Amino acid sequence: MGNRGIDYFLLVYVHQPVLIHMPAILVHTIGKSILFGEHAVVYGQPAIAIPITNLRTRVTLTPDLKAQTPTYHYDAPDIGMQGTLDDLPHDHILVEALRVFRESFSIKSIPSFKLHVSSSIPVAAGLGSSASISVGIVRAIAQHLGLKLPVERINTLAYQLEKLHHGNPSGIDNTVISYEKPLYYIRDQAPQFLEPGEPFHFLLINSAIHSLTSRVVDEVRRAWEATPIPFNALFHDIGALTAQARQAITKGNQVMLGQLMTENHHLLQKMGVSLPSLDDIVTLCNDNGALGAKLCGAGKGGNVIALVKADTIPSLLQTLQSAGWTETYQTSISKK
Ligand code: MEV
């Protein structure tokens, strides 16, 4: 999404009043869904992620010309987090972002600013709320510093922030959010963009069970350490499904993609990251017109993603609503 400046004027008295034009910086970033390969991607297997463009994080950075000493203010009313740098926890994303910029670009002092963050992406729901904030903050600060960074660099800096907060992320979340394109991703490699042969429509259904990605990734790591052989086999099988899914997407094969999604869900069940509610939503979708469905993201809560034909969406939505699943989102991918 583009960055737009808001016209912002400040009256400064030097010898006489001078009007300085200080544009506030407005950045929008998107949400994401993992279509194939969550968890396995942490262990080097491929995964596929798609953007959710109608879920957005909005970051506004307003230069603070009045501050005598470097001052940074953070305001995220959605999560009730507000304060200047001194009030924020030492591992807060703003503290880390300032450090990452100072170190990466050898900047001694970053000019003061106020940062306002708001988002329509539900938190702890597997839809990329954390990575979208990381990418948004990186883009806003880069612009504030007059740095015209390519998307690769924005992505690398956002990954540094993600690593500080998530221990061992694969980097897929910040990558799909930085590029805003469907992609096939292998850890530590450049993303490969996907060209869908046909449009694919997806419905996301929020279980409303909060689940922290870092915690579930850690649980899987401990389980893998305890019994590596079955876990390596699961990761390998998921990787093989993901490679097939890539073909299905580029060939426009809806039926095959749907079947692969449901198979991926079964492997995630075996991995121990599903929940009865997620399984119920998958079954409900598949029994009512979806071509396939799976949990998406870390699991243990969050969302299910279902592949649907456009004309089955209204009836499926009604069925889901009647069953109490009222929080849904839609997204699609198509040839650009
Ligand atoms: C989270 O969106 C996807 C996981 O595979 C974690 C990661 O890749 O960093 C569960």
Structural class: alpha+beta
Task: Give the CATH topology of the largest domain.
Answer: Ribosomal Protein S5, domain 2
Q: What is the CATH class of the largest domain? A: Alpha Beta
In terms of DSSP E residues, the strand content is: 25-35%
Let me know the largest β-sheet. Answer: 8 strands, mixed
Number of domains: 2
Low-confidence stretches: 1-17
The best one-word shape is globular
Average pLDDT number: 93
Topology as a string of helices (H) and strands (E): EEEEEEEHEHHHEEEHHHHEEHE
Provide the list of bound ligands, each named once.
(R)-mevalonate
Count of runs of 4 or more consecutive helical residues: 9
* End-to-end gap: 15 Å
Summarize the amount of helix as a percent range. 25-40%
Q: What Rg is obtained from the alpha carbons, in whole angstroms?
A: 21 Å
Count the E strands.
14
- Give the second-level CATH assignment, the architecture of the largest domain: 2-Layer Sandwich
